[in-house]
Amino acid sequence: MTTTLSNDIPPQEAAAAPAGPVPPAPAAASTPPLGRRYLDLWRTVLPELGFLLPLLPIVVVATSLLSTLLWTGVGMITLLVGFFIVLAALYVARGLGDFELLRLRAAGRPAISRVDWERKPPTGWISRVFGPYADPHYWVHLVHGMIVNLVLGVLSWSIVITWLASAIGGVTYWIWVLAFPDADRSRNFAGQLSALLGGEPNPVLDSIFHFVIGLLFLATLPLVTRGLTLMHWAVAKGMLGAWSSDRLRVQVQTLTASREAATSAEGQALRRLERDIHDGPQQRLVRLQMDLAAADRQLEADPERSRALIAEALAQSREALEELRALSRGFAPPLLLDRGLRAALAGLCDRAVVPTRFVDELPSDLEIPTEVERNAYFIAAEALTNAAKHAGAAGVTVALQLRRAPDPAASTDAAAEQRWLDLSVTDNGRGGALSVPGHGLAGIEERLRGVGGLLTLTSPVGGGTQLIAHLPLTR
User: Fold this and answer.
1) pLDDT in tens, 340-385
2) In angstroms, how far is CA 280 from the centroid of its own chain?
């Protein structure tokens, strides 16, 4: 049976995580020189122009469509059908917002975390149909598509068209001078400047002047396209992406679920302990009391029979003591409290029914929180018990690893890191294991949910069993 904790990715993606440690990310490179940064700007000019040049038709069509749907729906609201027309406007605004995020991503901007539109599961048909009315993201998308993007789009399109036309027209002006030598150029800027100075327009000086102006516009074109694209990206991040309040809401829901899972797991553990004590040591102690009472009654009449009963009572007491010691492992064992997780798992592997090998790949100076150690120990104990009872395995391997992953709860600009304990328990048994409510694997899953972890089960028939779990070292 394998319990593997993927630590190089967040728990939501653990199922797809490859086995084995992942090397730390390379150190961030030093800031490149100014010339290199300017060349990097040029590498994204074409994608940025691909975003900016179609802006005018896109924002005009989007505004016209959204305005028509919204105000038509508002005007027909008394006929009830208006509710559905406004609802259509909200869905169209959502689609246009997602389209804007795709265009920004194609322009080379960092991906913006998208809104989780299904974060509130509907509870009835009214919620399913009219849920967008209560979702502020829909209305913010509508404002962005109808007003904000129209203003920014017209402004950005006007600037980029002016800049691009000035750059191309300036650097190619000499071509038009050669093609049309007799054209009247007295009204352009260079011609008027020559007239003020008392001279005639000079085609050569005119061409040089326009070429220099065109070069200036062309040289600054990457700065303009990058600045306009960044402006649209910043607005989209604030209006079309997920909000920090969404992340906080998800964290609260996750913590609530973890607390409920921990409470449920603790309750089940106490009920299982009560049942084990009732079915095991308690019955033996009752039998011990009965044997001692019988021996006392026959002590004078039949000493040999009394000695036999006392011997049976001693055997019952030894067995009850062994069972109590075994049950006490359901609490934190002294070895775990005194020497930590590594020593406790090594001892657990030594006592296992199936031959078990323990592999420790953790850094020697790693400090593991007590609660993580406790849960990791009991997960390993339950996994080894399952391997002995149900897997028919001839060998098991228990391994510990440490992995580091970017913290998904941190902002995109932060280099926050989260560490995960990787516990792996692998058997070569018959496979086919399933997580059934009320049984060992389901208990492991609940225990992991209680500490914010995750369990994934892979158990093909005849191919052994693999449990993949995450135990977060930082929460």
Assistant:
1) 888 888 888 887 878 889 989 888 888 888 888 888 888 888 888 7
2) 45
Q: What backbone phi and psi angles, to 5 degrees, belong to 362? A: -80, 150
Q: Considering its fold, how many domains does the chain have in total?
A: 3
pLDDT given at position 62: 94
Q: Work out the pLDDT band at 22, boundaries 50, 70, 90.
A: very low
Residue among 92, 104, 105 nearest 138 (CA): 92
DSSP per position, 320-338:
HHHHHHHHHTTS--HHHHH
Question: Residue 400 is part of a domain; what is its CATH number?
Answer: 3.30.565.10
Give 8's contacts (C-beta < 8 A, 6+ positions apart): 17, 18, 21, 22, 403, 404, 405
C-alpha–C-alpha distance, residues 175 and 128, integer Å: 63
Residue 393 and residue 359 share a domain:
yes
Determine the Cα–Cα distance for residues 13 and 10; give it in Å rounded to an integer: 6
Q: For residue 4, is it within any domain?
A: no
Q: Given 208, 242, 276, which residue is the final one in a domain?
A: 242
Torsions phi, psi of 224, nearest 5?
-70, -50
**320 & 345 share domain:** no
Q: What are the residues whose beta carbons fall under 8 Å from the beta carbon of 376, sequence distance 6 or more?
A: 341, 345, 368, 400, 421, 423, 471
- Total residue count of the chain as it appears in this document: 475
